[in-house]
């Protein structure tokens, strides 16, 4: 049923008459990286250097990424926003798409760009154990033969928060009974740096950055070279683990032309707001004079942080250089930040809203759980990774693959080609960026306050929209909601999760099992047998339901919880109170009994005590008396 790995790659790569863009990555630790100039730390890089090389591919090619894991733990690579039509085992989401690449082994990711119809601005990052927090992340740019808009030159702008402590240490501090309120780790700094196609831009000439990262310009050591009168495309990507960013350029206007791989009609803005994992392309017209250089601003949204440490500078700057040596004009500070309204963006290629056939409602809740830690939930369920990756359950359960419960309580089954509204209601006070793997969704409705009866705050869903905005990551503010419409046309297993890494680790995810019988049919001769072998190498189950059993219902051993504390009295509390009440009643009855003169008189009680004291000496003292009374 399943193909040897090399045959699988050969079959996929020859589907269309196209080239193959082939890359080799050796994922390694890199010591003493210091991109912010503040602290040397170990990071996760590629081929012995950091940051990992940017990826730039023509849409006439397929991308074949050979990833060798030189770490001491499993890793994966997720090409964020790629559809992977009917091949979700290439999606790179650990415990959903694959078990992970064992240390010392290689996995080949085939991204069928040439047959996907996708182009634009994306990124690639680790999707295992929070490794992208430690640096395993890079731009992924797909160039079509004919761009929608014309420009003279393009640059990629990479934004990201940065931690001086490794993710594993921070995670233990975050999910901990000492942090019952769930305060997320606050970044130590932010980064801005630039790429052009497959190359990072170097530091400003004459600067002396830290040696390990000295080939790349970061923050004030970086600059974009502009020529007066030219038109530039800037592809801006937020690769953070936590922080949203506000981005603008002093003295220059911007027009949005793309969001998350969807070209849109020109939309003028003074500022971009980017939640984690979102991307925008903007056209920037260079000035006609070169008498001054200009400041670029990337400010963290500090309203997301429980505290803002005095050591944190949340306002990151770089520059546009027209004339080296000239002064940099800085027009900051600004009075207010502004956010982008998704529904105001209009795709250049219209896709009408299809009639809906199913609605899935997901309510976001954060709470202190019954084990004292703070976790996140959809509909009261904390996501725990299944013991068997969901795609492997799909392919090995046979007819039982159509039973939703076989995949665990955090799973939702979708029938082939049904049109689904995913309504995400954010009951949390903070905003959250949600990303759906394997799809672009239409944003068909948004509410500022989802439980309001005021239609200005909670408008009704309008059917028959001619061309709603499409993207793969949406930001939902606290108290708000978004209705995301998809067509279930991509058989496989796909994760939906908050892209704040700390919230994913805390359980804010569900998995969609899409058209499982069709997924089985399409996997024949294509699913790589190496994926099973690598599960075995890691000691991970690779067949059966979420718990590894050949059953639709037996989930014994599946990790679940923790659970919300019950409101009111817990069972133990009820029993304890009942015991207290019973004891009190007995005591009161005893008082009444003696007050009525019933029972032994005081003289009789005194005589009994004397007899016990006399007997005590014969039995060996007080210890004997205690033994008798026990």
TrEMBL record:
Which PROSITE patterns does the entry mention? MULTICOPPER_OXIDASE1 (PS00079), MULTICOPPER_OXIDASE2 (PS00080)
Q: Name one Pfam family in it.
A: Cu-oxidase_3
A GO BP entry is:
cellular response to iron ion starvation
- Residues forming the Plastocyanin-like domain are 31-146, 153-323, 411-516
Q: Which domain of life is it from?
A: Eukaryota
- UniProt xrefs under Gene3D superfamilies: Cupredoxins - blue copper proteins (2.60.40.420)
- What keyword terms does UniProt attach to this protein? Copper, Disulfide bond, Glycoprotein, Membrane, Metal-binding, Oxidoreductase, Signal, Transmembrane, Transmembrane helix
Q: Give the CDD domains listed for this entry.
A: CuRO_1_Fet3p, CuRO_2_Fet3p_like, CuRO_3_Fet3p
The positions making up the signal sequence are 1-18
The entry's cellular-component GO terms read: high-affinity iron permease complex
**Where are the bilayer-spanning segments?**
574-594
One GO MF term on file is:
ferroxidase activity
User: Family per UniProt?
Assistant: Belongs to the multicopper oxidase family.
Q: What is this protein called?
A: Ferroxidase
Q: Where does this protein come from, organism-wise?
A: Paxillus rubicundulus Ve08.2h10
């Amino acid at each position: 049923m399943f193909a040897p790995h090399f045959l699988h790659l050969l079959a996929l790569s020859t589907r269309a008459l196209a080239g193959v863009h082939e890359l080799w990555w050796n994922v390694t630790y890199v010591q003493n990286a210091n991109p912010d100039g503040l602290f040397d730390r170990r990071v996760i890089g590629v081929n012995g250097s950091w940051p990992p090389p940017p990826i730039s591919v023509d849409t006439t090619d397929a991308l074949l990424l050979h990833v060798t894991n030189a770490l001491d733990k499993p890793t994966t690579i997720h090409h964020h926003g790629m559809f992977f039509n009917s091949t979700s085992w290439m999606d790179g989401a650990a415990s959903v798409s694959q078990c992970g690449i064992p240390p010392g082994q290689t996995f080949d990711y085939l991204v069928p760009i040439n047959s996907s119809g996708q182009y634009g601005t994306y990124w690639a990052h680790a999707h295992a154990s929070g490794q992208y927090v430690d640096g395993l992340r890079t731009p992924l740019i797909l160039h079509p033969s004919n761009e929608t808009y014309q420009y003279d030159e393009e640059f990629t702008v990479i934004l990201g928060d940065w931690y001086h402590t490794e993710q594993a240490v921070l995670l233990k501090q975050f999910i901990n009974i000492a942090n019952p309120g769930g305060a997320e780790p606050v970044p130590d700094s932010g980064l801005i740096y630039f790429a052009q196609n497959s190359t990072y831009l170097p530091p400003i000439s004459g600067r002396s950055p830290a040696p390990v990262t000295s080939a790349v310009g970061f923050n004030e050591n970086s600059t974009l070279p502009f020529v007066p009168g030219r038109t530039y495309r800037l592809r801006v990507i937020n690769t953070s683990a936590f922080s949203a960013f506000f981005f603008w350029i002093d003295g220059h206007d911007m027009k949005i032309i793309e969001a998350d791989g969807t070209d849109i009609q020109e939309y003028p803005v003074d500022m971009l707001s980017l939640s984690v994992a979102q991307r925008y392309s903007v056209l920037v017209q260079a000035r006609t004079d070169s008498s001054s250089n200009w400041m670029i601003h990337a400010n963290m949204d500090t309203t997301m942080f429980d505290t803002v440490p005095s050591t944190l500078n949340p306002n990151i700057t770089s520059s546009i250089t027209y004339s080296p040596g000239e002064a940099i004009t800085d027009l900051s500070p600004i009075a207010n930040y502004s956010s982008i309204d998704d529904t105001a963006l209009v795709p250049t290629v219209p896709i009408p809203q299809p009639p809906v056939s199913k609605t899935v409602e997901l309510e976001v809740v954060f709470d202190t759980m019954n084990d004292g830690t703070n976790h996140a939930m959809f509909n009261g369920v904390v996501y725990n990774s299944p013991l068997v990756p969901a795609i492997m359950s799909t392919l090995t359960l046979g007819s039982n693959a159509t039973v939703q419960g076989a995949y665990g309580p955090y799973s939702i089954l979708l029938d082939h080609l049904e049109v689904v509204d995913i309504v995400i209601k954010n009951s949390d006070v903070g905003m959250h960026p949600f990303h759906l793997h394997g799809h672009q969704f239409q944003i068909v409705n948004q509410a500022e306050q989802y439980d309001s009866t005021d239609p200005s705050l909670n408008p009704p869903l309008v059917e028959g929209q001619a061309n709603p905005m499409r993207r793969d990551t949406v930001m939902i503010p606290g108290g708000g909601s978004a209705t995301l419409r998809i067509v279930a046309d991509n058989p496989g297993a796909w994760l939906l999760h908050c892209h704040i890494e700390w919230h994913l680790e805390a359980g804010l995810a569900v998995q969609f099992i899409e058209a499982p019988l069709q997924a089985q049919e399409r996997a024949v001769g294509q699913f790589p047998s190496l994926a099973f072998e690598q599960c075995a190498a890691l000691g991970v189950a690779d067949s059966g339901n979420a718990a590894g059993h050949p059953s639709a219902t037996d989930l014994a051993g599946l990790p679940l919880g923790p659970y919300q504390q019950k409101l009111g009295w817990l069972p133990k509390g009820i029993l304890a109170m009942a015991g207290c009440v019973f004891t009190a009643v007995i005591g009161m009855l005893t008082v009444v009994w003696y007050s009525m003169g019933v029972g032994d008189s005081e003289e009789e009680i005194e005589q009994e005590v004397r007899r016990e004291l006399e007997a005590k000496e014969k039995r060996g003292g007080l210890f004997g008396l205690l033994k008798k009374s026990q």
